[in-house]
Specification:
The protein has 384 residues and is of the alpha/beta class. The protein has two domains: 221 residues, Alpha-Beta Complex (Spore Coat Polysaccharide Biosynthesis Protein SpsA, Chain A), CATH 3.90.550.10; 156 residues, 60s Ribosomal Protein L30, Chain: A. 32% of the residues lie in helices and 27% in strands. The chain contains twelve helices and 19 strands. Strands 1, 4, 5, 6, 7, 10, 11 and 12 form an eight-stranded mixed sheet that branches. Strands 16-13-19-17-18 form a five-stranded mixed sheet, sandwiched between helices. It has a two-stranded antiparallel ribbon with strand order 2-3. The longest helix has 15 residues. The chain is elongated, with a radius of gyration of 29 Å. Bound molecules: cytidine-5'-triphosphate and magnesium ion. Cytidine-5'-triphosphate (CTP) binds next to helix 3. Cytidine-5'-triphosphate binds next to helix 3.
């Protein structure tokens, strides 16, 4: 099924104000327009992309704002009203297209699922839009005074992309060209007598209209862009005559972990998870065991150093989760002080540190009690 997406980006953004139309403003490193185009460019069911831009915007400037895409993007000059812009784009929709989607460039956080749901419903019913339920009670007002309370169950808030079979959209646009006015294509299709179905929208799919929306969008994009995850793993042999140190805690044990430092597998795995999440290499690069400085070093101190390094890169730890694998002794009575130790080194609350013990059921070297291993995962976020 051939699906053509039209991105409406020819407005002037008067409610937001400012020198540039809002869809050209940066949201977390890319223009709103570039984000909206990328969402459709990345979607496997979209065949063609048409972007409608202000007629005053030069072709090279439009290309720069749209950014790099996998598909070829056709750029069309818009009109005075949104419906005029969409009508201009519709003239370029290929004859073999079955479903046309129209999306506001000012909704940069549209998800692939919302696009898919809209395509499916438009193909099945002829016309469909995503919408969300009204959370607030809805009132009709006249000169600042409520004249009616509208039952909330009868209200939904329309989003985009709005999807239509080609013939249905053609009728809607014809109604618009013959004088009807509407702020979305569904409005014109309703006027043309077509039934427009509603699919589930998403509250994240906001239309950026005001300065407040823009600030929230920038915070959202910044936080999402800066989320990082990393994994770490470590294993040490267990030998007689060594202490068993886990997360800085000495666990009474017949055998201890062999190694250059205190051979604390928990600290080593967590350190690697942090360094990995921040793409800062690994523990061996920063604390090489050939360096006498780290001989018998306390691994909790190395972890503290690693936490400082990721802090210097602008990251903070959201949470850490660790699995320790050893046959004996049982570590459950030491989990709490271990969590407190790791949390202290990272400068976070123990509630964000999880440590779990497991045996290897007698299987392989760990199962025979010859070694101890640990896996860790760490989530980081950028500091705002
Ligand atoms: N749009 C368009 N052509 C127009 C008017 C609007 O392509 N003549 C697009 C906008 O660029 C936006 C989408 O339609 O992506 C939704 O419109 P809206 O949020 O109202 O944007 P603006 O019209 O630009 O903003 P305002 O109403 O505040 O001027
Ligand atoms: Mg408008």
């Amino acid at each position: 099924m051939r699906v053509t997406a039209i991105i409406a980006a020819a407005g002037s953004g008067t409610r937001l104000g400012g020198a540039l139309p809002k869809q050209l403003l940066d949201v977390g490193g890319r223009s709103m327009l570039a984000r909206s185009v990328a969402a459709f460019d990345a979607h496997p069911r979209i065949s063609d992309l048409i972007v409608v831009v202000p007629p005053t915007l030069a072709a090279e400037a439009a290309a720069a704002h749209i950014g790099r895409t996998r598909r070829r993007v056709e750029v069309v000059a818009g009109g005075a009203r949104r419906q005029d812009s969409v009508a201009n784009a519709f003239d370029r929709v290929p004859a073999s297209t079955e479903v046309v989607l129209i999306h506001d460039a000012a909704r940069p956080f549209v998800s692939a699922d919302t696009i898919s749901r809209t395509i499916d419903a438009a193909a099945a019913h002829g016309a469909a839009i995503p919408a969300i339920e009204a959370r607030d009670t809805v009132k009709r007002v006249d000169e600042g005074v409520i004249v009616e309370t509208i039952p909330r169950e009868t209200i939904v808030l329309a989003q985009t992309p709005q999807g239509f079979r080609r013939d249905v959209l053609e009728r809607a646009i014809a109604v618009g060209r013959s004088g009807a006015e509407a702020t979305d294509e569904a409005g014109l299709a309703e006027r043309a007598g077509d039934r427009v179905h509603v699919v589930r929208g998403e509250s994240a799919n906001v239309k950026i209209t005001t300065e407040e929306d823009l600030d929230a969008a920038r915070r959202h994009a910044g936080a999402a862009a800066a989320t990082r995850v990393g994994t770490g793993y470590d294993l040490h042999r267990l030998v007689d005559g060594r202490r068993l140190v886990l997360a800085g805690v000495v666990v009474p044990s017949r055998r201890g972990a062999q190694g250059h430092s205190d051979a604390d597998v928990v600290c080593h795995a967590v350190t690697d998870a942090l360094l990995g999440a921040a793409t800062l290499g690994d523990i061996g690069r920063h604390f090489p065991d050939t360096d006498p400085r780290w001989k018998d070093a306390s691994s909790i101190a190395l972890l503290r150093d690693a936490a400082a390094m990721i802090g210097a890169e602008g990251f903070a730890v959201v949470n850490v989760d660790v699995t320790v694998i050893l046959e004996s002794p049982k570590i459950k009575d030491y989990i709490e002080p271990m969590r407190v130790g790791i949390a202290g080194a990272l400068g976070i609350e123990p509630a964000r540190v999880s440590i779990k013990g497991k045996t290897n059921e007698g299987v392989d070297a760990v199962g025979r009690g010859e070694a101890i291993a640990a896996h860790a995962v760490a989530l980081l976020r950028g500091r705002s």
